[in-house]
Amino acid sequence: MITAESVPRLRRGVRLSFDHVRETHVLLFPEGVLVPNATAAAVLELCDGARSVTEITTALSLRYTGVVAQDVLAVLSRLGERRVVAWT
């Protein structure tokens, strides 16, 4: 079960990159490409395998207003279902 203390990281072979042609983030992985929305990209940038969901939420709260831990958990859960995020 994923909790606020869980620590997400990008799975092996997954890389978040910025596509300068399309001016958007892209998530590259062996099975394909995913174009995350701005919210998901902001979360993914902080998935370093060292920060917990709580720490990611706190970091996002410094940049944006109205950040809720449940929303961050929901984004990470969906990315986990797509097998681009793993948990340590």
TrEMBL record:
This protein's record includes keyword Ligase: no
Species: Amycolatopsis bullii
Protein name: Pyrroloquinoline quinone biosynthesis protein PqqD
Pathway: Cofactor biosynthesis; pyrroloquinoline quinone biosynthesis
Assembly: Monomer. Interacts with PqqE.
Keywords: PQQ biosynthesis
Presence of the UniProt keyword Metal-binding in the record: no
Top-level lineage group: Bacteria
InterPro entries for the chain: PQQD (IPR008792), PqqD_bac (IPR022479), PqqD_sf (IPR041881)
